[in-house]
Automatic annotation (TrEMBL), chain A:
Pfam families: 2-oxoacid_dh, Biotin_lipoyl, E3_binding
Basic and acidic residues: compositionally biased ranges: 111-120, 130-165
Enzyme superclass (EC): transferase
Keyword Cell division in record: no
Protein name: Dihydrolipoamide acetyltransferase component of pyruvate dehydrogenase complex
Organism listed in the record: Streptomyces humidus
Assigned protein family: Belongs to the 2-oxoacid dehydrogenase family.
Biased composition (Pro residues): 183-206
Cofactor section: (R)-lipoate
GO molecular function: acetyltransferase activity; lipoic acid binding
TrEMBL record, chain B:
Gene that specifies this protein: pdhA
Protein name (Swiss-Prot/TrEMBL): Pyruvate dehydrogenase E1 component subunit alpha
Cofactor: thiamine diphosphate
Keywords: Oxidoreductase, Pyruvate, Thiamine pyrophosphate
Pro residues: compositionally biased ranges: 35-46
Gene3D superfamilies, per the entry: 3.40.50.970
Compositional bias segments (type: Polar residues): 360-369
Pfam families on file: E1_dh (PF00676)
From TrEMBL, chain C:
Statement: the UniProt record of this protein carries the keyword Oxidoreductase: yes
Domain Transketolase-like pyrimidine-binding intervals: 12-187
InterPro entries, per the entry: THDP-binding, Transketo_C/PFOR_II, Transketolase-like_Pyr-bd, Transketolase_C
Name the UniProt record assigns to this protein: Pyruvate dehydrogenase subunit beta
Source species of the chain: Streptomyces humidus
Cofactor(s) recorded in Swiss-Prot or TrEMBL: thiamine diphosphate
Keywords noted in UniProt: Oxidoreductase, Pyruvate, Thiamine pyrophosphate
NCBIfam families for this protein: PRK09212.1
Gene responsible for this protein: acoB
Protein origin, superkingdom: Bacteria
A Gene Ontology molecular function term of the record: oxidoreductase activity
Lineage: Bacteria, Bacillati, Actinomycetota, Actinomycetes, Kitasatosporales
Length: 561, 369, 332
């Protein structure tokens, strides 16, 4: 018994629609006889069989679209009656076998449509679609087949036929042997297939219509905030349940907008390479090239020692494959500009921190502060304020640190030339970690005299500009006391290294609910751990303790902030 | 779907009926209106064995291609596959006139030419499969069959693109005083290409030993001759370049052979290029499958009634030269040969992808950028 | 004219050097023949083959009809049959009429036949502008040909290369296209015997330098050398690279030069968009990115069909001053 299969009628043909059988079961056929009419994307073609014998069972009914290679019918030998002649109306094969015989056919979708529960909630349509694709992948059918752009352009016949609720012109039937679908009525929604713009309106809207690209699952509040702050919801990864975009996601995106990369030094590739080799920090150079780009000559001028004279052609420069021979020079050959930028900053931080740890005798103090009152105050403020003016805990912590510095001026200033010089105001250095790695600590000037909303605004602005590489020169220096708030990084306690020539560094951890005794009762309170790293040359522990006590007092009496 | 039918006269589409007529040779290459059909010049071997060879070769081509249809439908063969079914008498008849040292330049519908020229079915089938044992190492495919050892210079898939190199092959023979002929096949569609006319002029001007074989199957892909040529008398047009040109019944393999032998003989005696217009018909689509919107079913059936294989078979039966058991034996032999070719192709190795850049230049290092 | 190779000692022209190369080829190998429009009685449109018909006869110096496709294709066929044809196409603009043969046959036959059919063919043609010949005789399309795998593209720019590139081109088993810039034919000078066998794989340093690489080929070489002189006067040491072979490109030579100078100007008489200059620039960016101390500069023709009027044609073409200015942009 031979199989007559859906033939490939062109190099680009992947499936065809059986339009008509030209023979019936029991009919004798000869090799080369046209036995069926098949419609492809290009044309309608009478297809021939390659066997001589008697037509056996027809496996696919007219109207069905099946992939190339799908058996369409069986052809038996002529002589003996090995063929099981099929009489019209005789019971066909069992459904169980149909899937096998039918092979990877579009009926995979029909099978899915038997599970309407998957399609119930419009809001979940996207998910349902996804799981549908999973099944599809399990099927032999190619995933996303129906969504291929080429097919999408055409009002695909198969699609049209499968359009829910509309009696198809040429119904796609399950393979023969399958009885009428036992599942839903033909009008049941088709959960998987994306709706195709159809010439005739589909009476039942497909739930899949709700499945739009991107994360549009966002609450109205998140939407409003997004709209106001110009954040594109489509591009936002959601952190909420089921990938929902939350308000926090939007606010975070709004705060980080425009904040991209650390300052980009304009330099030629060769200058960058040279700078890395000679240990010159590009940031310190003034470029003389096109558009003030730093060029090799600028790097050489800045290079310490004998390398400052024009570098002779390196020995490998004359070789045929300079790029290949660059590798053994100890420097990763593929280091790109951004990596070089990051490593330059890394070296700057390394130098500074080494100096700090070598020269400054640090002492450390720590206290845990009940910030329930401060948080209450913040929440109350936020309830009254538009989104853009809401406070974050950092604002209160900074304000407390600034006011405490005013109270304990011995920690607010510089240790230079073996003596302490008090700062000319409280200018908090705000440690800002950069996305590409590294750290800057620009100054938030006169932080002690800013009201909370102003401080908050100034903080947001400073952080955004630090991350965008748009700090002003005056902000790069002049900080009198640095605060590092790693609360948003999830840590509880920070023991920092002092930024010389300052004499102290204040650290705040995360605001975290902790059990604690309040008025003789065990309560759960929001708390924060405040730490102080101070220069023992400038102050002693008592001064530091005074400072932390002041911070505690201020946070517990937020009306003072 | 209603499609505009080509407007052609019956005369254009009717098969030539002049298979057995004794042709007259166009004098001095100025064949009057292309009608005359050449008759026995140097007559073919009257031996019925020769006719049996003709029959077997045509049948081999036919069965080979029928198997290709099957393999294509089963996606074993890909690409464009242009079938020769119906036109076998042309390839088989013309190649009878060629000596082994003569050269053949062909078109993209060249399975018949390749097999008739003696390229083994194994090598052609393996090429269809894209395997290293193919006659082009799997680099060519159906449209680009080559065999340098048999001076088979290939399937050229640019209509008329093979004509200029064919002139060059002939030129080289002439310059070196080698008495060889180059035979170039092309279709009626080539008449619309400048390369045909440039080459016809050049070949006639330089009196090159070139046999121009126009397989006029009446359609340039889907466009009927009368819809693409203002003057459909192709032999007359070829004659206008100053070369001998005849029109021949392309469904009668013996008539084709006779004409080709006379033409080749003329070429070998130094009378310059000869042109044969062979009226023939492809029974199948342009490439594998097409909806045949551009020709009438009746027309196809009419031409099928002059199937070149059946024509010769019946003639031999009438003469008592072919018994049913002979026919059965031929069929068996061919089937075995083709099945062997298919099996061998299935088993044949695929070229490793690492060899991708081979054969771009002759440099052993492979392609250079 | 008519001087023998050994007698060329003193002064010769590019045209004479090319003719001498043809004469040598025709003399030394009877498989070689020259074919093209007016190569015989006329003596070649540019006079290159003057006198060869008389010396070698009409079989080997063949005038053809104006059928570029037919005679280029015939060259391919003759090459397949074991001859060594030299086909002359009058100008690169006319070669478009034979593009089917060059691309679909000459460049692909070896591959399509699975390595059975090499095509040892040489096609010579003139290229380039500068003689007020307008928009159908003046273009530089060699970059198009350099796009095609399977052929070798040469651009002899010096007397030495004009004289000595043909022999290795004829020895190459694959198709070789030789582009002769029409502006070079009258260049004269002393032809020195080649120091080493002339090869077809390497670019040449026509002038060494340390500050900037000027990369060019063909008809732009004299202008580029003149630019290097001007730059030297301004204290800039320019290295001039003559690509010589446009396919395959000698990447190693270009990269080595850029590694020395860290700056590059590519000079190409073709239109800038999609040009060979674009290819060279891209390769420098790919292979020598970390050597670059300035953006790569290109000096190409203006994107306009070549105008007839003298001042417009001059403005459209790369000129020495343009090259000097580009070099200054990169160095200053």
């Amino acid at each position: 018994m031979a199989e007559f299969t859906m033939p490939s009628l062109g190099a680009d043909m992947e499936e065809g629609t059986l339009l008509e059988w030209l023979v019936g079961p029991g009919d004798p056929v000869h090799k080369g006889d046209p036995v069926a009419v098949v419609e492809t994307a290009k044309s309608t073609i009478e297809v021939e069989c390659f066997e001589t014998g008697v037509m056996g069972r027809l496996l696919v009914d007219p109207g069905a679209t099946v992939p190339v290679g799908t058996p369409l019918a069986l052809i038996g030998p002529t002589a003996d009656g090995a063929v099981e002649p099929e009489k019209p109306g005789s019971p066909r094969r069992k459904p169980g076998k149909a899937a096998k015989a039918g092979g990877p056919t579009k009926t995979g979708k029909a099978a899915r449509s038997e599970k309407p529960e998957k399609a119930v909630k419009p809001g979940k349509a996207a998910k349902a679609g996804k799981s549908g694709e999973g099944e599809k992948a399990g099927n032999a059918e190619k995933p996303g087949e129906a969504e291929k752009p080429g097919e999408a352009e055409k009002p695909g016949k198969a699609r049209k036929a499968e359009k829910p609720g509309k009696p198809p012109r040429r119904p796609t039937r399950p393979p023969p042997g399958r009885e009428e679908p036992t599942g839903p009525a033909p009008s049941s929604p088709e959960p998987v297939q994306a709706p195709t713009p159809a010439p005739t309106p589909a009476p039942v809207p497909a739930p899949a219509a709700a499945a739009r690209p991107g994360h549009l699952e966002a609450g109205p509040l998140a939407r409003r905030i997004a709209e106001r702050s110009g954040v594109d919801l489509e591009t936002l990864p959601g952190s909420g349940p089921g990938g929902r975009v939350t308000r926090t996601d939007v606010e975070r995106a709004a705060a980080g907008r425009g904040a991209a990369r650390p300052p980009r030094v304009r330099a030629t590739p060769f200058a960058r390479r040279l700078a890395a080799e000679l240990g010159v920090d590009l940031v310190t150079l003034t470029g003389t090239g096109k558009g003030s780009a730093v060029r090799a000559a600028d790097v050489r001028r800045a290079a310490p020692g004998p390398a400052a004279e024009p570098a002779p052609a390196r020995p490998e420069a004359a070789s045929a494959r300079p790029s290949a021979e660059r590798v053994p020079s100890g420097r990763p050959a593929a280091a790109g500009p951004s990596e070089e930028r990051a490593s330059a900053m890394r070296r700057a931080i390394a130098g500074l921190m080494t100096r700090a740890n070598r020269d400054i005798p640090h002492y450390y103090l720590s206290t845990t502060v009940d910030v329930a009152a401060a948080m209450d105050r913040m929440h109350e403020h936020n309830r009254r304020s538009p989104v853009g003016e809401r406070l974050l805990p950092a604002a209160l912590l900074l304000k407390a640190a600034a006011l405490a510095a005013r109270e304990v001026p011995e920690l607010n200033g510089f240790w230079t030339d073996d003596r302490f010089t008090a700062g000319d105001g409280v200018h908090l250095g705000i440690a800002v970690s950069l996305r590409g790695g590294g750290l800057v600590a620009p100054a938030l000037r006169d932080a002690d005299s800013l009201a909370l909303p102003q401080l908050m605004a100034a903080l947001k602005d400073l952080v955004a500009r630090a991350r965008a590489g748009r700090l002003r020169g005056s902000e790069m220096s002049g900080a009198t006391l640095t605060v590092t708030d790693l609360g948003d990084q999830g840590v509880e306690t920070v023991f920092g290294v002092i930024h010389p020539p300052q004499v102290a560094l204040v650290g705040f951890g995360r605001v975290v609910d902790r059990p604690c005794a309040v008025d003789g009762l065990l309560g759960v309170r929001p708390t924060v751990t405040a730490t102080l790293a101070a220069d023992h040359r400038a102050t002693d522990g008592a001064v530091g303790a005074r400072y932390l006590t002041a911070v505690t007092r201020l946070l517990q009496n937020p009306e003072e902030l | 779907m209603s499609v505009a039918r080509p407007t052609r006269t019956r005369k254009d589409s009717a098969p030539a009926k002049s298979g057995k007529k004794t042709p007259e040779r166009g004098a001095g290459g100025r064949a009057p209106a292309g009608r005359p059909v050449p008759g026995p010049g140097s007559a073919p071997d009257p031996d019925p064995g020769h006719r049996r060879d003709l029959l077997e070769t045509m049948l081999r081509i036919r069965r080979f291609e029928e198997r290709c249809v099957e393999l294509y439908s089963a996606t074993k063969i890909r690409g464009f596959v242009h079938l020769y079914i119906g036109e076998e008498a042309v390839a088989v008849g013309v190649t009878q006139a060629l000596a082994p040292e003569d050269a053949v330049v062909s078109t993209y519908r060249e399975h018949g030419h390749a097999l008739a020229r003696g390229i083994p079915a194994d090598a052609v089938m393996a090429e269809m499969y894209g395997r290293t044992t193919g006659c082009s190492g799997g680099r060519g495919g159906s449209m680009h069959l080559f065999d340098a050892s048999r001076r088979f210079y290939g399937g050229n898939a640019i209509v008329a693109g093979g004509l200029p190199p064919a002139a060059g092959l002939a030129l080289a023979d002439r310059m070196r005083g080698q008495n060889r002929v180059t035979c170039c096949f092309f279709g009626d569609g080539a008449f619309a290409e400048g390369e045909f006319h440039e080459t016809a002029n050049l070949a006639a001007l330089w009196r090159l030993p070139l046999l121009l074989v126009c397989e006029n199957n009446l359609y340039a892909m889907g466009t009927a001759l009368a819809r693409h040529e203002a003057q459909t008398d192709l032999a007359m047009r070829a004659a206008s370049y100053g070369m001998v040109a005849w029109t021949v019944d392309g469904m009668d393999v013996e008539a084709v052979e006779q004409a080709a032998r006379r033409a080749v003989e003329g070429i070998r005696t130094g009378t310059g290029p000869h042109f044969l217009e062979l009226r023939t018909y492809r029974f199948r689509a342009h490439s594998m499958y097409d909806p045949d919107r551009y020709r009438e079913k009746q027309e196809i059936e009419k031409w099928k009634s002059r199937d070149p294989i059946e024509l010769l078979r019946d003639r031999m039966r009438e003469n008592g030269e072919l018994r049913d058991k002979d026919m059965a034996r031929i069929e068996r032999r061919i089937t075995a040969e083709i099945e062997h070719a298919v099996e061998a192709a299935e088993q044949a190795p695929r070229e490793p992808v690492g060899d991708l850049l081979r054969h771009v230049t002759s440099s052993p290092a492979g392609a250079v950028s | 004219m008519g001087a023998d190779g050994e007698d060329l000692a003193a002064r010769t022209t590019y045209r004479e050097a090319m003719r001498e190369a043809l004469r040598e080829a025709l003399r030394s190998d009877d498989r070689v023949f020259l074919m093209g429009e007016d190569v015989g009685r006329y003596g070649g449109c540019f006079g290159v083959s003057l006198g060869l018909l008389e010396e070698f006869g009409p079989e080997r110096v063949r005038d053809t009809p104006l059928s570029e496709s037919a005679f280029v294709g015939a060259g391919i066929g003759a090459a397949l049959a074991g001859m060594r044809p030299v086909v002359e196409i009058m100008t690169v603009n006319f070669s478009l009429l034979a593009l089917d043969q060059i691309l679909n046959n000459a460049a692909t036959l070896l591959h399509m036949s699975g390595g059975q059919l090499p095509v040892p063919l040489v096609i010579r043609m003139t290229t380039g502008a500068g003689r007020q010949l307008g928009a159908q005789h003046s273009h530089s399309l060699e970059g198009w040909y350099a796009h095609i795998p399977g052929i070798r593209v040469l651009a002899p720019a010096t007397l030495e290369d004009a004289r000595h590139m043909l022999a290795p081109a004829l020895a190459d088993p694959d198709p070789v296209l030789v582009f002769e810039h029409a502006g070079l034919y009258n260049v004269s000078g002393e032809l020195l015997p080649p120091a080493a066998p002339v090869d077809l794989d390497h670019a040449a340093i026509r002038r060494p330098g340390t500050d900037i690489s000027l990369i060019t080929y063909g008809g732009s070489l004299p202008k580029t050398l003149a630019a290097a002189d001007e730059l030297a006067a301004a204290g800039i040491s320019a290295e001039v690279i003559d690509l010589r072979t446009l396919r395959p490109l000698d990447d190693a030579a270009v990269n080595a030069s850029v590694a020395r100078t860290h700056r590059a100007v590519v000079v190409d008489e073709a239109w800038r968009t999609g040009s060979l200059a674009a290819e060279v620039s891209a390769r420098i960016a790919e292979d020598s990115f970390y050597e670059l101390d300035a953006p790569v500069e290109r000096v190409c023709s203006a994107e306009v069909p070549m105008p007839y009027a003298r001042q417009l044609e001059e403005a459209a073409l790369p000129q020495t001053a343009d090259i000097v200015a580009a070099a200054h942009r990169a160095v200053d």
